[in-house]
Amino acid sequence: MKTNRLAPGIALLILAFASAARTEQPLRPFQRARLLLYQTYNFPIKGRIGTPGYPDGLRGEAHVTSGGGGRFGEAICFPDGDSAIEYTAEKNFPITIGLNEGTISFWISCDAQAQPEDRFAEWFDVNDGAWNQGAFSIALSFRSPRDLLFSLYASGPVDATGETAGGTPQLLAARDIDWASDEWHAVTASWSGLNTGGPAARMRLYLDGKKVAEQTGFEHIVKWRAGGQVIRLGSGAIGKIDDLAIFGRELSSREVRSLYRNPEGVAGKYLSPPPGED
Questions:
Q1: Residue 55 phi, psi (nearest 5)
Q2: Is the pLDDT confidence value at 2 over 80?
Q3: Residue 151 belongs to domain with CATH number
Q4: Segments forming the whole domain that contains residue 135
Q5: Mean pLDDT of 188-208
Q6: Rounded to whole angstroms, how far apart are CA atoms 160 and 163?
Q7: What pLDDT is attached to residue 24?
């Protein structure tokens, strides 16, 4: 398969509540969903991608497929377990704009049993400087049978020297993942009720539109430092990702099912104009 080293996709940064405040027109679907970051891999890159060390976002041998290698066209491919793609978290992730709920959604294609045996396959990760500090992670475990893990780590305490301890984790798991490399599966993880100071937090994990795990009624505090956080996809993983979306609110179970069933994915559900609009 030929590959394309051009920067992948198109990233759309949309602050829905800001747009709504400037207009009296009905909210469009992406505004109601607070779609912060959308990444398809069919067009040259636009928007917020990359970090100072990797301005095009690509690390190692990560590349865009060609010839329709994705779920909805092309995809980002991680061929060797040592590649990744990075996005700046600022304004792309709910915590950075003061939102205490959110949803991560993407499609994944991989041979679950062919992942590296000595590390987690981190399909999605963002944290406040350490893997266990204010982190949001979606990963395949490195022990067989493989489990798909959705982890939330609270912000840990800072000692007198300025060192920060790891935060308390909350974990959901989908057990015994046995995906094949020629399959595509939808992964969605959502949360709400963070930073309330009480047991109001909730987290959910969905596979192919179905809720497979949920935890409710816990306290969870995430307080990131100002700037510098990185969203990283594919670290330690072998396979492909397509149709990445980050929302600034918790999608309902009904919305997740509807998104999974939409034949055009995120673009079809949230970016296409309503009937009667151009």
A1: -60, -25
A2: no
A3: 2.60.120.200
A4: 3-271
A5: 96
A6: 7
A7: 46
